[in-house]
Amino acid sequence: LLCSSEHLEVAKSTQTMNEEELxxxxxxxxxxxxxxxxxxxxxxxxxAALQLVDAVISGxxxxxxxxxxxxxxxxxxxxxxxxxxxxxxxxxxxxxxLKYGLQRILIVDWDVHHGQGIxxxxxxxxxxxxxxxxxxxxxxxxxxxxxSDYDAVG
Length: 154
Known about the structure:
By secondary structure, the chain is mostly helical. It has a single domain, classed as Arginase, Chain A, CATH 3.40.800.20. It is 38% helix and 8% strand. It has helices at residues 5-13, 19-26, 38-58, 88-100, 116-122, and strands at 105-110, 128-133. A two-stranded parallel ribbon has the order 1-2. Helix 5 links the parallel strand 1 and strand 2 (128-133). Helix 3 runs parallel beside helix 4 (88-100). The longest helix has 21 residues, at 38-58. The two termini are 19 Å apart. GO terms for molecular function: deacetylase activity. Pfam families: Hist_deacetyl. InterPro entries: HDACs (IPR000286), His_deacetylse_dom (IPR023801), His_deacetylse_dom_sf (IPR037138), Ureohydrolase_dom_sf (IPR023696). Residues 5-144 form the Histone deacetylase domain.
């Protein structure tokens, strides 16, 4: 599973929280801040990515791009991270594999930040090749992880 049930339950619970409760929950994550509408918006973002997969694979469109917020590439199975609640691209890739039987997927992540959530999700999966183009600056640029360097290969 790409999202633990605990992570999903925390996200759902924020819909009815007041500002103080939202701040307290948000403090458990790195660079993530909940709002009462975050869960709903994140679900719509995932849904948009899945609809795009359906449209491309069915031939309804030749190609596409899901410009969605919140983004997803930092999110991990058990935690929101870096403004990302759910890992939209990872979920879409797994969906394409399961629903359409795709055997090889390339994810090109062109962003100023490394999408460690996608890397962690697929580093043991030979059916998905993840390529991230991002700033690193000798581990000085967020997310400041050793695995964000050029020689990290899963």
